[in-house]
Specification:
Chain lengths: 748, 244
């Protein structure tokens, strides 16, 4: 009974919410199109736009040639019956490129304008001819916007416009070299890649299955049954260790896919004016690269480690809500697939990972609308947002309620602390983004007007909503990396971390500051100058707790007994690259400097130094560090050091020069660039490919060590926290007996 | 090795050289940023190398008395004085860097403080820049290219065939740009000079340029805010020409 009432209440609430949507398909100011008025055509706009009026622009060339003159004929029909010897119609045409020219006494270009319209004499016709001179560049797309008015001729009086109908139409002519609008009969490059990998995968499957059938003399059904038995526990598990492994593998899988997209970007930028990708494909590529790396690679890797390690570190058997945890995980591949579905709808999302409106909200009448896959991009991200929110609740509950005896909050290992701060940030920021995405989806799909500028929407509202989430998001990704580094550096220096308490407070401070700095992404936007000035001050403050952490790590090493194994080497490399990323962050925080650097390659260099040089490097260190715990095998040391050397050198070679091209003025998200940047860009591209290949060593090392690695034992690195107290790999219920945390001061 | 040359010598945006006379040189914000960046990087790397040289573990080293033991929360290690020192030192450093960026910021943002000679309406749309006819101000009237308060394009100006994606400006004028967008966000960006201002629909934003502070010649405007398919081709030429 109660449930029925509850669901009825929900239904009523949803219905109310639906009616509250600010829907509409017309502009609030009436049917008067502001663009049209601004361009000088104000007559006969009192009636509604009418689809009865048919506008034809004929003798358009298929493609135009540079500076050639073309004669067009504009004809309107429908609407009202024309009256002989009276006014019959009018028109207005504007071109975004080239120049229009009147050739007879029926048309005119109003003084100081560029559009062409009828004159008083031209009113008596419904057909006009005029010339258009093509622009000097043949790589553009000329768009002709035409308004046609079908007039019944009852001119004069106050009612002169009655019975008149008008309509609007748009015609496009591409230059002979405007490749991106040429009919797309061929598959796009990313589509080809998807098909190629699918074919490759299916071939491999056939070979492997066939091999099994022949060698083991099994029927196809038997082989499939074996596989099903192997896969089934993974599909149905609620064990934090299994889900953690799934998260980590999915994360690195998407890291691989996102990396390929990154390399496609670098291939396109290998030379200026490259036609490897069309502009539209390029835009999808960097959008998907960013979205994949942040939401489907970095965050899942972090949650994978958190899933695996948090219960072990705080001495719990599992997370508080294991089934919720499984739901969180399965929303991730689902959301990922939905986002990538965009590739099969005529182009994946192409709005950048920031998805700035009004471009992303696709207001009516944009010359260049977003690609259809953007709807999938929005929908998939909503799923990922739900996944992260559920995870945050799960971890918060676990860490507050399920710690082992003796494990006070201020005695948690620093990785646990970093996740603790992170999930607070997640809980406060991700829902904001998810709600913003729902509004965006409503705008795009249901015709609401939340972000519609023409309807009076705030043009930078989205930026506030996005960066209110987006900046804490950056710390969500980097704080766990700090946790990993703290664990590794302390363990391999064979001494306690220097300044445990100040480390915890530094992380908490970063968490708090992260909510009041987001405006530094909007230094050149039209936001309030006072707001921009204040966030410059708060942004500078981030350097203080970050500095404390770096100095504490170095002080931990001083007086220690440093063992240089692969995890430690990666951790030290991370300190260097992250320090560079941190320093450039301070440079970007100064508004006068940022105004020149904003939206340029210096910013690209900065966040790759932080996200790859900080997050990815430290989690690779984390893999080397915790792989023995997860599998019971130690990873190969020689391959590990080779992996580090190649990765560290090629990373810096690829991303350091981006600072230079950025200072010289190369903007980000450009599919082509001025030829003065060619040399450095070629160097960057080559280094980026080397960086990509270096990761193959890592994959090989993981597989090789999983099969042939040395036995690790429970505590191969002599760490102190609880995960090293249980066996490697841990038993199904994590601990045979829940341990009690002792304190060194009370031991003797 | 021209590549290494490229990495060391590069052109910085010209407005950095001297923000209109405020805080140039080694005490200016750009050089201070560069100097302190290098010092901090040297400090971190130097300290790390020092650690690696003097505190390496060799086989058979005895464990330190507070060495880690599994299942035992380690000894508290730290020194309040040192920790406070490296809280305050970065605080002083960033305060100084913030302070040194105030004067350039004031110069860049104080549009009204720079009395203009010309005002130009700029409309951005997918994917073009459209420049209105310059409007003379009272101050601008003192110049040869303003006659009775109306802008007269000097006869020597012949670089632009249309007002779309092309603009020719006299050298030695303070120019205000009133920026509006027809559709989506764009950004009005002189990469060589270092001026950038987003162009926002339904909101007029302002940018300004003192053509006296830059050399005469050809400059570009590149759209810096992602605006759709042809974002990378949304450029305009700006010619700054000496008027005889």
């Amino acid at each position: 009974m109660n449930k029925k009432i509850l669901s009825l209440g929900f239904l009523v609430a949803i219905l109310l919410a639906v009616t509250a949507f600010p829907t509409g398909n017309s502009l609030p100011t009436g049917i008067e199109d502001p663009n049209m008025v601004a361009n000088g055509c104000t007559c006969h706009t009192t009636g509604p736009m009418s689809s009865d009026v048919v506008i034809n622009l004929t003798t358009l060339p298929e493609n135009y040639n540079v500076s050639q003159v073309y004669t067009f004929t504009l004809r309107i029909s429908g609407g009202t019956e024309p009256t002989e010897d009276a006014n019959q119609g009018g028109f207005f045409i504007s071109a975004n490129y080239g120049t229009l020219e009147s050739t007879d006494n029926t048309t005119q270009i109003p003084e100081g304008k560029t559009h062409l319209t009828h004159n008083e004499f031209g009113n008596n016709f419904r057909e006009w001819s005029f010339n258009w001179t093509a622009p000097e560049s043949d790589s553009k797309v000329a768009v002709f916007t035409v308004y046609g008015n079908s007039v019944n001729g009852n001119a004069g009086g106050t009612d002169g416009a009655s019975g008149d109908y008008w309509n609007k139409a748009e015609f496009k002519v591409a230059g002979v070299n405007a490749k991106n609008v040429a009919e797309k009969e061929e598959m796009s490059v990313p589509q080809k890649m998807v098909y190629a990998f699918t074919v490759l995968f299916l071939t491999l499957c056939t070979v492997v299955v066939g091999n099994r059938m022949v060698v083991n003399d099994q029927s196809f059904e038997d082989v499939m049954k074996d596989y099903w038995d192997a896969v089934y526990p993974w599909l149905t598990t609620t064990d934090h260790k299994y889900i953690g492994t799934l998260y980590i593998c999915t994360g690195f899988g998407f890291f691989f896919i996102g990396g390929i997209l990154g390399l496609l970007i670098r291939l396109q930028l290998f030379e200026s004016d490259n036609d490897f990708l069309t502009y539209e494909e390029y835009n999808s590529t960097f959008t998907m690269h960013g979205t994949t790396m942040i939401f489907m690679a970095a965050m899942p890797i972090i949650f994978g480690f958190a899933n695996y390690l948090i219960p072990l570190q705080i001495g719990a058997r599992d997370l508080a809500f294991p089934r919720l945890n499984a739901l969180s995980y399965w929303l991730l591949p689902t959301g990922g697939i939905v986002i990538y579905m965009g590739y099969f709808t005529g182009g994946a999302g192409d709005v950048g990972w920031t998805g700035y409106t009004p471009y992303a909200s696709n207001d009516a009448g944009l010359t260049g609308p977003t690609s259809p896959g953007t709807d999938f991009w929005v929908a998939g991200q909503i799923m990922l947002g739900a996944s992260s929110t559920l995870t945050a609740i799960n971890f918060l509950t676990t860490m507050l309620r399920m710690r082992a005896p003796g494990m006070a909050l201020m005695r948690m290992p620093l990785f646990s602390w970093s996740i603790f701060v992170t999930v607070f940030l997640l809980l406060l920021s991700i829902p904001v983004f998810t709600v913003a995405l729902i509004l965006l989806m409503a705008d795009r799909t249901f015709g609401t007007l939340y972000f519609d500028v023409n309807a009076g929407g705030d043009p930078i509202l989205w930026q506030h909503l996005f960066w209110y989430f987006g900046h804490p998001e950056v710390y969500i990704v980097i704080l766990p990396a700090f946790g990993v580094l703290s664990e590794i550096i302390s363990t391999f220096s064979r001494r306690p971390i220097f300044g445990y308490t100040s480390m915890v407070y530094a992380m908490a401070t970063i968490g708090i500051i992260s909510f009041i700095v987001y405006g530094h992404h909007m230094f050149t936007s039209g936001a309030d100058p006072l707001f921009r000035f204040i966030v410059m001050l708060t942004t500078m403050l981030v350097a203080v707790p970050t500095g404390i952490k770096i100095f504490n790590w170095l002080a931990t090493m001083t007086g220690g007994s440093i063992v240089l194994k692969t995890p430690m080497v990666f951790a030290l490399g991370t300190i260097i690259t992250f320090t560079i990323g941190g320093i450039t962050g301070i440079i970007l925080a100064a508004i006068p400097v940022d105004i020149a650097l904003h939206d340029g390659y210096f910013v690209v260099a900065h966040f790759h130094y932080v996200l790859v040089g900080g997050t990815v490097f430290s989690f690779i260190a984390g893999v080397y560090y915790w792989f023995p715990k997860m599998t019971g095998k130690i990873m190969n040391e020689k391959l590990g050091l080779l992996h580090f050397a190649t990765t560290f050198i090629s990373f810096n070679a690829a991303f350091y020069p981006m600072h230079n091209v950025g200072i010289e003025g190369m903007p980000r998200r450009y599919a082509t660039y001025d030829s003065e940047f060619t040399e450095l860009n070629e160097f960057i591209s080559i280094a980026a490919f080397l960086f990509g290949f270096a990761q193959l060593i890592f994959i090989y090392n993981v597989i090789y060590s999983y099969k042939n690695g040395k036995d690790a034992g429970n505590n191969p690195w002599d760490g102190w926290s609880f995960e090293w107290a249980t066996s490697s790999p841990p038993p199904h219920n994590s601990f045979i007996e829940i341990p009690t945390l002792k304190v060194a001061e009370e031991e003797k | 090795m021209s590549l290494i040359g490229d990495l060391i010598n590069f052109d910085n945006p010209s407005v950095w050289n001297d923000f209109g006379g405020t805080s140039g040189g080694f005490l200016g914000v750009v050089w201070q940023m560069a100097i302190w960046s290098i010092l901090v990087a040297i400090l971190v790397c130097g300290w790390m190398i020092y650690n690696l040289i003097y505190y390496r573990h060799t086989e058979g080293d005895p464990d330190h008395e507070d060495a880690l033991k599994v299942g035992v929360f380690p000894h508290e290690r730290g020194d309040a004085k040192i920790e406070i020192a490296w809280t305050i030192a970065p605080l002083i450093l960033v305060s100084w860097l913030t302070f040194s960026s105030l004067a350039p910021l004031d110069y860049l943002w104080d549009v009204d403080g720079q009395e203009e000679d010309l005002t130009i309406e700029v409309e951005a749309g997918q994917w073009y820049w459209q420049f209105g006819t310059p409007v003379c101000s009272e101050k601008g009237n003192e110049n040869s290219w303003c006659v009775d308060g109306l802008y007269q394009q000097p006869l020597s100006f012949d670089k632009c065939k249309s007002n779309i994606d092309c603009l020719e400006l006299p050298h030695g004028a303070v120019v205000h740009f009133r920026l509006t967008s027809k559709d989506v966000l764009h950004s009005f960006n002189f990469p060589e000079i270092g001026i950038k201002q987003d162009v926002v629909p339904n909101l007029e934003t302002l940018a300004w340029l003192d053509t006296d502070k830059v050399e005469a010649g050809q400059y570009s405007i590149w759209c810096a805010e992602y605006c759709g398919d042809e974002h990378s081709k949304m450029d305009a030429d700006v010619y700054i020409t000496e008027v005889q």
